[in-house]
Write a structure and sequence with these properties.
Number of strands: 19
Largest sheet: 9 strands, mixed
Radius of gyration: 23 Å
Distance between the termini: 38 Å
Shape: elongated
CATH architecture of the largest domain: 3-Layer(bba) Sandwich
Number of helices: 15
Bound molecules: flavin-adenine dinucleotide
CATH topology of the largest domain: FAD/NAD(P)-binding domain
Mean pLDDT: 96
Strand content: 15-25%
Structural class: alpha/beta
CATH superfamily of the largest domain: FAD/NAD(P)-binding domain
Number of domains: 2
Oligomer: single chain
Low-confidence stretches: none
CATH class of the largest domain: Alpha Beta
Length: 474
Amino acid sequence: MPVLPAKGKTFEISVPVIVVGAGAAGMTAALAARDGGAEVMLLERDHRPRGSTSMSQGNIAAAGTKSQKAAGIDDSGEIFARDIMALTRGETDAHLARVFADASGPTIDWLVDKHGIPLEVDPDWGAALGHSRSRIHSVPTHTGTELISVLGNAAEQAGVDLVTDAHVTDVFANEGGHVRGVRFKRPDGSVEDVGCDALILTTCGFGANRAMVKKFIPEMGDALYHGHEGNEGEGIQWGMALGAATADMTAFQGLGALADPHRVLIHYNIILRGGLIVNVKGERFTDESTDISGMGRKVTAQPEGLAWFIFDQRLMDMVSKYEETKEAVQIGAFRRAADTKELAALSKMPLAALEKTLAETQAMAAGKAKDPHGRDFTLHPALVGPPWWAVRVCGALFHTQGGLVIDENAQVCRADKTKLPNLFAAGGTARSTSGPADWGYIPAAGLFTAVTQGRLAGEAAARLVSGRKRAAAE
Ligand SMILES: Cc1cc2nc3c(=O)[nH]c(=O)nc-3n(C[C@H](O)[C@H](O)[C@H](O)COP(=O)(O)OP(=O)(O)OC[C@H]3O[C@@H](n4cnc5c(N)ncnc54)[C@H](O)[C@@H]3O)c2cc1C
């Protein structure tokens, strides 16, 4: 039973705010709580913080930032929220989408100005895949490893008490859902109990919990999971046991861009700027320039569950600066073919089908034909080859998007809309802004919600505990 009765329980050690899970959401929540004047303990099950955050490309969607303004990009929370509502076909909470979109720009500016996190808008992404403005921000290397490392340094500087090798197994609470503390297990099997006045859950989603995936997202029940292995949905389960409501548990981000068998994420700009995706028969099967998240499902449904990205030297040059491209090149995931015959031989795709697909797309790029799948190939230069570049990819579940229902302050709510007294959630543990499926995921929403909800949760938890301190003193 993940929630233990707090009645009669005393804690030798107690801190005002405990945060569980040291990914982007947990780090940001801890920073915000510290800025709000609270003592914070951040508990992480791994030996050092990684999370899905470290596996990511470090891209964070945010609107109205100073970096966007400096780049001449006119954006706002209102426009961002409108984009979210359009992509989710109105199937997410419009009020919360607006609250989080409004808070996204100030969150990036705060991380940059107050905590020295080097985030800037990345013009390469442009306005695409549901974003009507260029609003994806990243750290210089465009890697999650850099992002988690700079967040970790900032947390240390801010005086956050980061405790690693601390797998939280239980939450102590009163009958009314008032959290009193947590229990965590050490790698040697010993356990420690710590009390708290407010608890922030940032254990991400349930992608690593096969039983939960099968229950809530049966279509991805047997799909490859390519997120952090520690994200077993414990935060969501504690919230549910405490009486919290959940929403959009069927939502997730899936991508069809994982090099097979190398398991390196291939930069999707290859496709957005003109590259093709074909199945092992050499045939296109969708408009690959839309619904990036739905590509996980679509690629998985193809023969052998595989597909190939095909592109030219221009696109290879464009993505060669990214760390994951360098890694993919180093481990041999990218294949170069001197001509279409060699491409067919190395990929084992039928030559005739490949020649037909390439000829058709070149005609579409020249405006001489229309794509039956609806893609406008005239938006980018036609592929120029040979040589051709190719990489075989598979689909995967990257992270889940449903979770605990929270309010404007990231405080966890019950189904009747009342709030749990001192419980907050952010990032993958909380309901995102992606609607009920995979098609509503707007690029870089995972980290957008992680840092934005994380900041809101940390600020609100600090306000709550400082109010209690004042009340106790009076
Ligand atoms: C390959 C990949 C690429 C991605 N790229 C992007 C991108 O560029 N932009 C974007 O917006 N999103 C991206 N995402 C999604 C993004 O990484 C996540 O949405 C985001 O990192 C979630 O942050 P988080 O803090 O909620 O979770 P995490 O970063 O996963 O952190 C959760 C932490 O909680 C810890 N934890 C879990 N349970 C416990 C417990 N019981 N006790 C103690 N600790 C616990 C875990 O060990 C982990 O460290 C990507 C995801 C993947 C997998």
